[in-house]
Amino acid sequence: MTGDGMDEQVGGRSADVMAGGCACGAVRYKVSGSPIFVNNCHCTLCQRQTGSTSVVNAFFESEAVTLTEGTLTEHVVTAGSGGDHAICRCERCGTALWSYYPRLGRLGLGLRVGTLDEPGRLRPDAVIFTADRMPWTALPDDIPHFETTYNPAELLPPERFARLKGMIARRAAGEG
Predict the structure, then answer these.
(1) How many CB atoms lie within 10 A of CB 56?
(2) How many domains does the chain have?
(3) Edge-to-edge strands of the sheet including 72-78?
(4) pTM of the complete model
């Protein structure tokens, strides 16, 4: 349960509901349940797209996220894989709220953790693409970090990895 008392049923079980929004307040959303994984990415594409040293994305099934107020625009850039990476932003202020990545299509999204009302509730599972990080950026001792990426099967708990595998299989079958 979040600080605002939101709680609802997801998949027949009680799930945490977190809320978030953009910088100007025109866009609000809620997200139900726990993320599949959370990455703190330092790749040069993320640096360029955010204008910062890195980004923290929490990956959820798309149906877990509900836009409750406002209008989004989509801006397509090229992902590291060469496919389309659609960044969803507030129409009014341009805050990036989430992205759709080529591997998962519209089945899953990477929610910008910094847009949550309580961003500290989500902790990265991994810090990735540390080879590209700014030389003065410190890495946490208690979060695994990787020069590029990692094998999710080796890092994620089985239940979360199964959710990821399910989405990848659906995408390979032509969904999303």
Answers:
(1) 21
(2) 1
(3) 72-78, 84-90, 96-100, 108-112, 55-61, 37-41, 126-128
(4) 0.89
Contact criterion met (CB below 8 Å) for 57 and 49: no
Q: Which domain holds residue 162?
A: 7-172
Please write the tens of the pLDDT for every residue from 59-91: 999 999 999 999 999 999 988 888 889 999 999
Q: What is the CATH number of the domain that holds 121?
A: 3.90.1590.10
Question: 40, 162, 159, 171: which is closest to 110 by C-alpha?
Answer: 40
Contact 108, 167 (CB under 8 A): yes
